[in-house]
From TrEMBL:
<dbReference type="InterPro" id="IPR036291">
    <property type="entry name" value="NAD(P)-bd_dom_sf"/>
</dbReference>
<feature type="domain" description="Pyrroline-5-carboxylate reductase catalytic N-terminal">
    <location>
        <begin position="2"/>
        <end position="89"/>
    </location>
</feature>
<dbReference type="InterPro" id="IPR051267">
    <property type="entry name" value="STEAP_metalloreductase"/>
</dbReference>
<dbReference type="Pfam" id="PF03807">
    <property type="entry name" value="F420_oxidored"/>
</dbReference>
<protein>
    <recommendedName>
        <fullName>Pyrroline-5-carboxylate reductase catalytic N-terminal domain-containing protein</fullName>
    </recommendedName>
</protein>
<dbReference type="GO" id="GO:0016491">
    <property type="term" value="F:oxidoreductase activity"/>
</dbReference>
<dbReference type="InterPro" id="IPR028939">
    <property type="entry name" value="P5C_Rdtase_cat_N"/>
</dbReference>
<keyword id="KW-0560">Oxidoreductase</keyword>
Length: 213
């Protein structure tokens, strides 16, 4: 499958490397096509401008700083039905509060003709670069929020390409919860806490009769 990335930073390189290894064709897109080409050469991809990457295939990874993401997207000509994978986080790095309360929804409103999927926002690029890893003996779960089931399933395939497990997390309206979770988790990590200790196993949380979905 052909995947374009909007951005040529660490997230685009980390995820793109694994997708190339899985047999996908990847184009790294950047405002500086020369830099994008350099990153692409390191992972066996091709490089180009962001406009080139936005038209490269039916899947586009949005790997730009959150503060410029919407502006860049509205200046591109994304094809209707494109699956746009949003891995951005918009929070204040001073106190780890949300700078934008619903980043994925804002993106969807800016480009309503594409299928926005929120994924890959809960971990740093190093987690994706070093994939697959086991954490307490189990592979990482990657929450996915989307309104389009087919788009969510497609992104689940990309998660599995890294050796991790896709975790359906509901509609795109729930992506704001993922974004808030990222802000909360990073704030805890930087003070030396461990967020894994915050959540009991499902059975312990709900008793012997977990709620149905």
């Amino acid at each position: 499958m052909r995947i374009g990335t909007l951005g040529n930073g660490e997230m685009a390189e980390a995820l793109g490397r694994h997708w190339v290894r899985a047999g996908h064709q990847v184009m790294i897109g950047g405002r500086d096509p020369g830099r994008a080409a350099t990153v692409a050469a390191r992972i066996g991809a091709t490089g180009g401008s962001m406009q080139d990457a936005s038209k490269y295939g039916k899947v586009v990874l949005l790997a730009l700083p959150a503060e410029v993401a919407v502006g860049v997207l509205t200046g591109l000509d994304l094809a209707p039905g494109t699956t746009l994978v949003d891995c951005t986080n918009a929070f204040d790095h001073g106190d780890f509060t949300l700078a934008v309360p619903a980043m994925a929804e804002s993106i969807s409103q800016a480009v309503p003709h594409v299928r926005v999927v929120k994924a890959f926002n809960l971990a740093a690029d190093t987690v994706w670069r070093d994939a697959p890893q086991l954490f307490d003996g189990a592979p990482l779960g990657v929450p996915i929020c989307a309104d389009d089931p087919a788009a969510a399933d497609l992104v689940g395939r990309f998660v599995r390409d890294l050796g991790y497990l896709p975790v359906p997390a509901g509609s795109l309206a729930r992506a704001r919860l993922l974004e808030a979770t990222a802000a909360l988790a990073v704030g805890i990590w930087v003070t030396g806490g461990d967020v894994r200790a915050l959540f009991p196993p499902r059975a312990a949380a709900f008793g012997t009769t977990p709620p149905t979905t």
